[in-house]
Amino acid sequence: MRQRTAIVIGGGIGGLTAAVALHRQGWEVTVLERAASLEPVGAGIALAANAQRALDTIGAGDAVRDMAVPQFEGEIRTPRGRRLARTDNAAAVRRFGGPVVVAHRAELIALLAGRLPEGAVRTGAPAEVADPGDPTHPARVRLLPPAESADTADTVNAANTPHLTADLVMAADGIHSATRRALFPGHPEPRYAGFTSWRLVVPALRRPYAARETWGPGGVWGSVALHDGRVYAYATAAVPPGGRAPDGERSELLRRFGSWHQPIPEILAAADPAAILRNDVRTAARPLPACHRGRVALLGDAVHPMTPNLGQGGCQAVEDAIVLAHRVASDRSLAAALDAYSRERLPRTTEVVRRAERIGRLTTWRSAPAVLLRGAAIACTARFAPDLALRPLDGIADWRPPGGTYASGAPGARPAHPAR
């Protein structure tokens, strides 16, 4: 039988997971990444039990656990350092089957890319869907000159640009997905969620470090340790979109968070100003009518951009990849597989987007009475119903992948169990 072919547009975590999953099923896979290198900008990523189990199905779960730090405990504090709540990941293990682990994105990308054949990943290769295909003919992808992008493709002579064809195209081209716009023209673009985020990684601190978030007026600061001792920190603030600090983002963070409790000033003092990332947070304005069209499937932020408040953006992209690969392996026709993929993923990811946005709105409260009320509610919940804080992840972090096997997710556990 002819080997089936797949093209992945986008070499992020979701796209690479999908590529590995199909490669393990015998597909010939090509990943087209527009950036000159797969190495992502420096930031961490949280992987809850659902994502770890998904990665287990491609044999990568234990490797991720080994290179990550399980976040067994965490805190929520006020800017002055008063503790509102202490979280115990033992409760998450009981409730969801495993703790959250935090890894560096660059290491996760390298792990996934290393499971693909040499030459499967092409960097400096921007591409766009020229024809989504249908049951009678394959999809067609147009390769663009590296200096071009899909947004400026009208300057390219389409007749003279090379094309690739494939049985399946998986578009993991991010929140500003050109593929989404091509497949669903006129659908509302992701909208500004009301706050901006900053991300940074700093060298190891001198003191022992625990994961924590600090909630203040109109903003949040969070930080977690990475396995090599470095610290991944993130912050959000309710500000107008499109802003940039004239004197640099480190100065902006110092103005907003520099007077908050330690180790926040210590982290900012250790930060490389050139390595601080600032991005407006956007979320889906409205769910797409489907996650695919023709032979092209969307996954990750390309189909369901969400706020980071549940830590599920990357997790849901990994789920997308595993479900899509399972469907194309299980269903008798590709059309049926893609229909099933949309039916399974659209309701689930729509609900995750909704829950994340609801929590995100809480972080933008600014007035003193509202902030006091929010802090009291967090403290009361932590004291009288500590597991209640985990409820937003019910039905999300306890997800099990279809088919295959996965590890239990319990600390130190390695045996695999049938998926259910």
N-C termini distance: 31 Å
Radius of gyration: 21 Å
Sheet of most strands = 7 strands, mixed
On the 0 to 100 scale, the average pLDDT is 90
Strand content: 15-25%
Quick one: how many beta strands? 21
What would CATH call the class of the domain at 5-71 and 100-190 and 285-361? Alpha Beta
**Class per helix and strand makeup:** alpha+beta
Shape: globular
Number of helices: 11
**In the CATH classification, which architecture of the domain at 5-71 and 100-190 and 285-361 applies?**
3-Layer(bba) Sandwich
Report the helical percentage: 25-40%
Low-confidence segments, given as residue ranges, are 152-156, 408-420
Q: Going across the major beta sheet, what is the strand order?
A: 6-5-14-15-16-13-17
| Fourth-tier CATH superfamily name of the domain at 5-71 and 100-190 and 285-361 | FAD/NAD(P)-binding domain
Named CATH topology of the domain at 5-71 and 100-190 and 285-361: FAD/NAD(P)-binding domain
Briefly summarize what is shown:
This protein is an alpha+beta fold and 420 residues long. It has helices at residues 13-24, 49-56, 61-66, 89-96, 105-113, 178-183, 249-257, 264-270, 313-330, 334-363, 368-384; strands at residues 5-9, 28-32, 44-47, 69-70, 73-77, 83-88, 101-104, 121-122, 127-131, 139-143, 163-166, 168-171, 191-202, 211-216, 219-225, 231-237, 277-283, 292-293, 296-298, 405-407, 416-418.
Summary keywords:
420 residues, alpha+beta, FAD/NAD(P)-binding domain, seven-stranded mixed beta sheet, six-stranded mixed beta sheet, 11 helices, disordered C terminus
